[in-house]
Specification:
- It contains four helices and seven strands.
- By secondary structure, the protein is an alpha+beta fold.
- The chain has one domain (2-141): Alpha-D-Glucose-1,6-Bisphosphate, Chain A, domain 4.
- Strands 1-7-6-5-4-3-2 form a seven-stranded antiparallel sheet.
- It is globular and about 45 Å long.
- The N and C termini lie far apart (35 Å).
């Protein structure tokens, strides 16, 4: 599995950031490549949704499940179909009511589809995508 870790300070209350990142429909705003979220079923732990994601010019369809939801500190989302991944968001109260957002992503690239040479390029691209994710959340929350 590939692994990416990022953190960023956000000038917004922890509850606001937590509510934003845990809303499945907002993920289309902050996650580059995520084209569509549909079929949201349930709420809280066990909530499921279907997604369409574009990587390396190819579309992937998958399904995610909320595995942990501990407001306002921790949110864990696992993709159980499509691109298998685990997203762990940990939020901390930071200076003067701000929030430190930590993101840890583990994922498996569908290597048989892309090939080993493309895998290296995708890993580098996904590092940049992780930076975009954090900056997109920060920008939205600081408006």
């Amino acid at each position: 599995m590939a692994h990416v870790q990022r953190n960023i300070a956000i000038k917004a209350p922890i509850e606001k950031v937590f509510n934003y990142i845990t809303d499945p429909m907002s993920s289309e705003e902050w996650s580059p490549g995520l084209e569509k979220i549909t079929g949201v079923i349930g709420s809280g732990v066990g909530r499921r949704d279907k997604w369409e994601y574009k990587m390396a010019g190819m579309k992937f369809n998958g399904e995610s499940v909320v595995k942990e939801l501990n407001p306002p500190d921790r949110y864990v989302l696992e993709s159980v179909a499509g691109i298998i991944s685990k997203w762990v968001f940990v939020l901390e109260k930071y200076y003067d009511g701000d929030t430190k957002l930590n993101l840890d992503i583990e994922y498996t690239i569908p290597v048989p589809i892309l090939g080993k040479l493309a895998e290296r390029a995708i890993l580098g691209q996904n590092e940049k995508v992780a930076d975009q994710i954090m900056n997109n959340i920060k920008t939205k929350m600081e408006r």
